[in-house]
Specification:
The protein is an alpha+beta fold. It folds into three domains: 40 residues, no CATH class; 98 residues, Immunoglobulin-like (Sandwich), CATH 2.60.40; 64 residues, no CATH class. 21% of the residues lie in helices and 28% in strands. It contains four helices and 17 strands. The strands form six sheets. A five-stranded antiparallel sheet has the order 2-8-7-4-5, with no helix packed on it. Strand 16 and strand 17 form a beta hairpin. Helix 2 runs antiparallel to helix 3 and helix 3 packs antiparallel against helix 4. The radius of gyration is 50 Å and the shape is rod-shaped.
């Protein structure tokens, strides 16, 4: 081995380290800019994941300042509100891996009474679309208002960080309720069933029309339209029809509301008299 050559090489390396700063300063003195090292900026998705891993208001504010618009920006603002104690969307919580169990399923009839309550026990819910169509995923907020969280295609899956007592709806395309889920403790599976496995939709029962019983009148009353009217007191000299009307028998006249035998006949009136059928007698002219 040539030890003399090795000694010369070491001396050359020492000279480089000693005079390298002077060479750089000389370049600045001569107006030459040193070439900066080029670093590739992170993508929006990478920046979002970095802010999420830190989980602080400062990290999310930094993300929003660099990416102020878009879906991730809206989520970042929601995380800021959650960290500030002003949660208006499903709070996000990081959980250790846990065995998955079925999510709690409720009926659509319960939807009007459902809303998100406390945000104490964090959970994960995985939606798996085993149905034949595209499903709309909705979260019921603390006021009972529906917040849409995108759609899920047949055969696809989506995972959300949520809390117990926070209800989620798997809705039809037009927005009507199909299934309702609550996350179980830890990690849970919300299976969106095929239409054949769902309870059949029942049409609302038609309202029954109330029919009043037929009108029956008491004795001595007759039915006139929808009311009962007191019948006439025909007396012994009259005939009553099935409808309750009175007709005077032959040889009698209706006088004072009753059928009576006249005191006189018309042919019994004198020259200066006239027969009154209502009184049944002759009266002066």
């Amino acid at each position: 081995m040539n030890f003399e050559f090795l000694g010369v090489r070491r001396l050359a390396l020492v000279l480089v380290f000693l005079f390298a700063p002077a060479l750089t300063l000389g370049a600045f003195a001569q107006g030459q800019q040193p070439q900066p090292q080029i670093s590739q900026a992170p993508t929006e998705a990478e920046a979002f994941d970095s802010a999420k891993s830190l989980g602080t208001v400062e990290a999310w504010n930094a993300f929003v300042s660099n990416y102020p618009t878009g879906f991730r920006a809206d989520l970042a603002r929601a995380y800021i509100k959650q960290l500030s104690g002003q949660t208006t969307s499903p709070p996000v919580a990081q959980l250790p891996a846990a065995p998955e169990q079925p999510a709690v399923e409720l009926t659509c009839d319960q939807q009007p009474t459902l809303r998100s309550r406390e945000s104490k026990e964090a959970a994960k819910i995985r939606f798996k679309n085993d149905s034949e169509g595209t499903i709309v995923l909705q979260w019921i907020d603390f006021n009972g208002t529906l917040k849409e969280f995108g759609t899920i295609e047949p055969g696809a899956e989506k995972v959300f960080d949520t809390f117990l007592t926070h209800p989620w709806i798997a809705a039809y395309g037009e927005g009507s309720c199909r299934q309702i889920f609550l996350a179980a403790p830890g990690a849970s599976l919300a299976r969106i069933k095929p239409q054949a496995e769902l309870p059949k939709r029942t049409a609302p029962r038609p309202q029954q029309v109330r029919s009043d019983p037929p009108l029956r009148c008491a004795p001595n009353y007759k039915k006139v339209g929808n009311t009962c009217v007191l019948m006439q007191n025909c007396g012994p000299n009259a005939t009553r029809t099935p409808e309750g009307d009175c007709f005077c028998n032959p040889g009698t006249h209706m006088m004072d509301g009753r059928c009576q035998i006249p005191r006189q006949q018309p042919n019994q009136c004198g020259r200066n008299e006239v027969y009154s059928s209502s009184m049944g007698q002759c009266i002066p002219r």
